[in-house]
Every structure is written in structure tokens, then in C-alpha cells.
Amino acid sequence: MAWSDFGLLLIPPVVGGVIGYFTNDLAIRMLFRPYRPIYIFKRRLPLTPGLIPSNQGRLAQRIADTIMGSLLTPEELQKLARRLLQTERIQQAIQWLLTLALDQVQSRNQARTAEIVGNVLKDLLGESFPRLLRVWARRDDFLKAQLDQIFDQVLLDFQLSEEQAQQIAEWTLNSVFPPDVIRRSLVDFLTDRNIHVIDEIFRSRTSGTYWVVANLFGVRNALARLRAFCLDEREISNARIAELIDALKIRYRLQEWLLGVSLQNLPVSTVRELRRSMRDTVRSYIQTLGPDLLKGLSTTVNWQSLAAQLLNRLQTSTAVSKSLSPVSEELALVLERYLERDLESLVAQVIPILNIDQVIIDRVNATSPRDLEAGIQGIVRNELQAIVNLGGVLGVLIGGIQSLLLFYRG
After folding, report:
1. How many Cβ atoms sit within 10 Å of the Cβ of residue 117?
2. How far apart, in whole angstroms, are the C-alpha atoms of residue 171 and residue 244?
3. CA–CA gap between residue 221 and residue 34 (Å, rounded)
4. Which letter does DSSP use for residue 367 in this model?
5. What is the pLDDT of residues 58-79, one digit of tens each?
6. pLDDT value at position 325?
7. Quick one: which H or E segment has residue 53?
8. Residue 187 class from Cβ within 10 Å (0-12 exposed, 13-18 middle, 19+ buried)?
9. What span, in angstroms and rounded, lies between the C-alpha atoms of 313 and 300?
10. How large is the C-alpha radius of gyration of the chain?
11. For residue 330, how many other CB atoms are within 10 A of its CB?
């Protein structure tokens, strides 16, 4: 066979391989290029822009429909939400949020925060709580258990010690009823009318020796002289009253009486009545004067300063830091129970709000044809290159078949 004949047989496979290779490569490139339409004499050339850029809107819609119809179905989103919203993850997220909030409170200027918290405390204790207290006080069982417990455990068992009784006796005789007070009280009591009444009763209601003394001597003159003596001789009267207090051991007797004062010495019926009376008195006081008292107290409190102190205390409190974990755990369990019950309806409400399909469409439409080509080629570069190579191989095979036909015909 001559070299010229061999060259003729070699040309069809080579030309077929080149045509098949570059034709497939051109076809793949025409999927994306040209990126923009090309106009000649104001007429757009066919196949410009490429197939994908010219149909990018429909492609975006088909991608969104495929993803939402096959991949991100409501059932798959529920499964994804269940995996994402596991109790441990929710607890960690809530604890992180609580820690972040606490750190923000610690790092920021607290003036504004203290003002807000102060206004809340003022409204709560100065306005809301008094109204609630007035309503609560109308109930028959308001503070019943608490007041009964105070009465039974504090008042019923209360008894003065010897030192306390001595101090009260000293205070009573030295401050409440000193000799001068007793003398003036005696003078105020011994008026002419009172002296006359005492004398008349003494004369008419005594008998025997006392009747003789009352009618012969009477008590009018003695009481009148006692009154005059207390008025004229104040210092001497006070001294005599003090001597009588010491001689009669009034201080010691008063101390003994105070030591014996106890509700346990009273009859049971009396104790029950006292307990009921105390409960009714406290409830009546709270119902009538309690709200006004709280409102009055709220106006005297510097709530902003109090709120600042509370915030400072919360920042350094170990109890707050230790409570973050159990609080987040409890909140996570509450949220878990809510999700178990309403996760399906929640996902159904979230899907329209997220509008995922429109997000996909917007993202695909916003991607330039160059970036879209680079992205697709980055995913299926080997597959596209295999198509190009396959075109070359097919071209060589077809060209080889033509060469064989020429060879046998020749």
C-alpha cells in the first residue's frame, strides 16, 4: 500500500476525532456562552445568550421546585428540626443566651438598666401589688395559715426572761409612771366631786367599826388634805411616793407579774378568740390601710438606687451563675414538650415565612452566568470532560469505519 493511500485512510479517523471532540466541547460551552445576547444590525443572533443564561429564570424555578418537592419536604424539615432541636442542644443554646445576657448586663453601663428595673419595681410594689393586696384581703382565708402559725409559734410561746422583765419594770417605773406622774395623776383624780362621791360611798356602805370611823371622822378631810399636800409640797410628795414604791416593793411585784405573763396561762377558748381577733385585725388593717401604706412607702424609696444595688448583687452572686444550668434545663424541657405537641403545625407555619423556594430562585437569578458556569463545572468537571473525550473517541471510530469502507472498496 502506498503512503498516499495510507494517508487517505488515516484522514477520516483524525478528522472525525477532531470534529467529535471540538463539537462536544462547543456544545457544552454553548450551554453557558455567550453570557449576553449578541446583536447585529439590531437583530439578536440565534443561540445568544447560551442555553442556561437564556433560561436562567426557568432553571431557578425548576431547581426550587425540585428542592422543595423532593428534598426539603415538610416531613424532611420536621426530621431536620427534631435533630436540630434536641434537648441537649436547646439547653446549651438557652444557657448560652442566659450567660450572654448576664455578660451584657455586667459589661454595659447600668444606668439605663437600673432606671428600667427601678421603674418596674416602683410600678410593681407601688401600684400593682397594693391593688392585688386589696383584692386578696377580701378573702376569708387570706394569710390565715401564716398568721395562725405566727400566733402559735411566736406569741403563744412568748414569755419574758428575768432580765427583760426587770428592764421593763425599771422602764415602767422610771419613765412611764415616775413619782411626779403618779402625784399629778392623784391630784387630777382627787377632784371635789370625786372626794364627795368617795366619802358618800364610804359612809353609806360600811358597817361596824368602819362605819363609826367613816361617820365620825369621814374621809373627806383626809383626801382633801392629801390633795393639798400633793399640790403644795411637790418635792416632798414625790419623795414620799418614791419611798412608798420602794417600801411596797412595787418594782419587784411588777417584775414578778411580767414573768408570769403568758398566753398559755389563759383558757383555751380565750386563746382561740385572741388568735381569731388578731387575724381579723391584721386582715382589716391590710384591706383598709395596707395599700395606702405601701403606696406611701414606695414614694420614699429610691428605686433606681435599689435596682442598681440589686443588679450589682446579681452580677456577683454565685447563686445566679449556678442557677443558669438548671433554669436552662427546665426551659429546654418545656420547649421540648411544646415541640412534641406542635412541631408539625409550627413547621407548616414556618415554611411560608421562610419562603425557601423564593430564596432559591432569587439566589439562582442573582448568580451571574460566569459564576453559574464555574459552579456547575466545578461540580461535574470530570463528567463534562468525559463527554468531550467521548465525542472525540466516537469521531475516531466513525472515521475509522469510513476508512475501512474505503479500503475494502478500493
Report:
1. 18
2. 18
3. 139
4. S
5. 877 887 777 777 767 777 777 7
6. 75
7. helix 51-54
8. middle
9. 22
10. 53
11. 12
CB contact at 8 A, 125 and 229: no
Q: Please, are residues 399 and 16 in contact by the beta-carbon 8 Å criterion?
A: yes
Which among 14, 95, 104 is positioned nearest to 323, based on CA atoms?
95
SS3 state of residue 324: helix
Is the Cα torsion angle 49, 52, 55, 56 positive or negative in sign? Answer: negative
Backbone φ/ψ region at 130: left (φ over 0), alpha (ψ -120 to 50), beta: alpha
299: DSSP letter: H
CA nearest 339: which of 83, 151, 4, 9? 83
Most confident listed range (137-141, 182-186, 218-222, 341-345): 182-186
- Cell numbers placing 285: 388593717
Nearest C-alpha neighbor of 79 from the set 333, 339, 356, 328:
339
Residue 409 pairs in a beta bridge with none
Residues in the chain, overall count: 410
Burial class (CB in 10 A: 0-12, 13-18, 19+), 352: exposed
